[in-house]
Amino acid sequence: MTTLGIVGAGHIGSTVARLAVDAGVDVVLANSRGPETLADLVADLGPRARAGTATDAASAGDLVVLTVPLKALGDLPADAFDGQVVLDTGNYYPQRDGRIPDLDDGSSTASELTARTLPGARVVKVFNNIFFEHLGALARPEAPAGSDERSVLAIAGDDTAAKQAATELLDTIGYDVVDAGPLAEGWRFQPDTPAYGLPYDGSSDGTWSGATAKRVGAQELRDALTAATRG
Fold first, then answer.
1. Fewer beta carbons under 10 A from the terminal one: N or C of the chain?
2. Is the pTM of this model over 0.90?
3. Domains in the chain: how many in total?
4. Boundaries of domain holding 154
């Protein structure tokens, strides 16, 4: 791939952007406040990065990372995502997003909601269960896939080709993949599950930082996904 669109330039979005440009991938970043507010981040990322609107980022990328609150999904230019592989980092936080009945009763998942909001997109859930500093610290792009140096991230999706594209991006930035199944299984690595955050944290006191990042292998993550229960 040559270009990654990133809609949402917060902690996860900017970390993925850094990993991408370091791996030789061009990025187009967008946020809700306008391209001019991303000038400092783009300058820091260097010549492989530029800022644009959400439509620019969604249409320019070979893949698009979507990292916005669920409550902001309705503000997106949905048509711009048609046909795109969308890597959805979203989680449901009622205190931020308000109550969403389909998510409260377990009849749907956060990424299924994203897929309904962007019906032309091919949605893959990823990057939602790791602290942004751990994400940056654990990337091993120089290590071969399957090596003991690499950590794994979970993905879920309904489109096989889209999941393969996500896997290839993750390999490029230095991660291996555990496939958790279709989007309906994305709850297995949402907040308050064993796979959410904790596997990647090696601190003794819960003080997360890049310095506390702990490698997570495939079997450890599979065990955490299997141990998940729905409340």
1. C
2. yes
3. 1
4. 3-227
